[in-house]
Amino acid sequence: MKKRDSLGTRLRYGFDKSMAAGPIALIGWLAVLSLLIIIAAAGFLAVTRIAPEGGEPLNFFEAFWESLMRTLDSGTMGGDTGWAFRLVMLFVTLAGIFVVSALIGVLSAGVDSKLDELRKGRSRVLETDHTIILNWSPSIFDVISELVIANASRRRPRIVVMANMDKVEMEDEIAAKVGKLGNTRIICRSGDPTDLYDLAIVNPQTSRSVIVLSPDSDDPDSQVIKTVLALVNDPNRRTAPYNIAAEIRDGKNAEVARVVGGTEVQLVLADQLISRIVVHSSRQSGLSSVYSELLDFDGCEIYTAEQPDLIGKTFGEAVMAYEHCALIGLCDRNGRVYLNPSSNQVIRKGIRAIIIAEDDAAIKLGSTGIKIDAAAILGPRPVETKPERMLVLGWNRRGPIITYELSRYVAPGSTLTIAADTPGLEQEVAELPVAGDNLSVSCRVIDTSSSTALASLDVPSYDHVLVLGYSETMAAQPADTRTLVTLLHLRKIADDAGLHINVVSEMIDVRNRELAAVTKADDFVVSNRLVSLMLAQASENHHLAAIFDDLLDEKGSEIYMRPVADYVAIDQPLTFWTIAESARLRGEIAIGYRRIRAGEADQRALGGVTVNPLRAEALAYLPEDRIIVLARD
């Protein structure tokens, strides 16, 4: 009795285990059961020599075949004769009906389970050389749009998206907000990017690059860092390094992320990036269009490439060696970036050139002929700095960074007034860090969407006005709506005063920029879009994050927009060769211009900005036109 119970327990355990193993194991059990029934029936017929009435006795193999046919098709026994043979075949047929019915049920359940798994996005990705996007945020649509443009020349490009969302929901949102995907296919999977098992679903071992977005959660940076940690420390990871572009909101977490990701990760510090571009744009109207052009795959981009023909040349000579692209810096073997180095620096073997070009195929040394009007070149003039009065309307988490960045640029005696109605504003402003004592900061608690409150600030008396979105206390659309109302009030104030007010505004959603055009603000910085462009570019260019860190750092070379009349005489049309030479003689690099002409089409809505123009084309310039240069101060 004890042995029988033990055997029964083992049988039940084996069956339960097969049930847990899934449809394949159940099909195997049913096949074994069918085989046992067929063998038993065949053996019985062969031993007893029972045969159809009037027929010859069957051997084992013939009996096996007859039993198999009746197991698979119950109608086969309709032609049987002889009651002994009929009874044996009836038993085999009834057993077959049970087994086949169970088999159909198992197969149906297995197919349904597989379809449900596919719908949920839990099947493993089999693609290679694909781009992976982990986590979900409003930036994802712009990231995908840019990658679609970058993938236009590739064969069978794939983008794999994984987040803690329903697969169908992700696919529907992407289809609704991205538009045309060209030759790019989007594959969505549901899972936790911080989980090693779930990461294996998107097959990072064969990926081209990985983009880690900052999710909408209470602690997004921790989730990004944990995701990077899971990628680089996976026991089953590939030996070749990953190319990871990760978004970090708070710069204080950047050091931890760099320790975790090492050389495999490029960090896009979202708040620092947006804040610095807001500051630069507030001081130089149109500058955000320059950054958008450099980050947009649809225009000129920044490339790093070895240029053997430059070996032995000085950097100053190399700058004037390209006609269809602009050399702006060098990258050494360790990945260190040097923008606008000394003109006397000799380019050695192994040094990569940092170049602005429309396409990597356009990076070619040589020109059809350099045409420089030496007589039109003007020498540098001393620039007198004076104190500035600045006004910030609205407030969010980037406000402290913007304040600190402003304090690094302004002349002594400058003032900044912060006006908003966010909770705890006065206390936060009182504790704002500033660089040195060049800038004094004051606070006004007002409703920035009220025309009466704005009128009390004497807005026309300020040199620069910055409008920030209330992104910490409002959703994207309500925050942008309040920004639009503030801009409309500012426009009326300017019209009533008969003055031009220098206004730069932060927008959260790029779709609201067209609506804001009626406000006639000087510049718009679309925060989410800039971060998206940076992540997409960093996933394609291993050095881009370091290049933009240098571009936006006050200590290095920066992009400036300066009057063209400060560089050349504008009494006659000039080629860009002449302007480039004038800038080179000052230790600067001319990369473009801003010319606004009534009636001329601005198809890309860049406000007259042209980066990497045709150098041989002679153009007429006006005093209000600007030259875009890369300079140290």
TrEMBL record:
The chain crosses the membrane at residues 21-47, 83-111. It is found in: Endomembrane system. Keywords: Ion transport, Membrane, Transmembrane, Transmembrane helix, Transport. InterPro entries: CASTOR/POLLUX/SYM8-like, CASTOR/POLLUX/SYM8_dom, RCK_N. It comes from the Bacteria. Its main location: membrane. Gene3D superfamilies: NAD(P)-binding Rossmann-like Domain. Residues 128-267 form the RCK N-terminal domain. Pfam families: Castor_Poll_mid. The keyword Transmembrane applies. It is a multi-pass membrane protein. The keyword Disulfide bond does not apply. Belongs to the castor/pollux (TC 1.A.1.23) family. PANTHER family: ION CHANNEL POLLUX-RELATED. This is RCK N-terminal domain-containing protein.
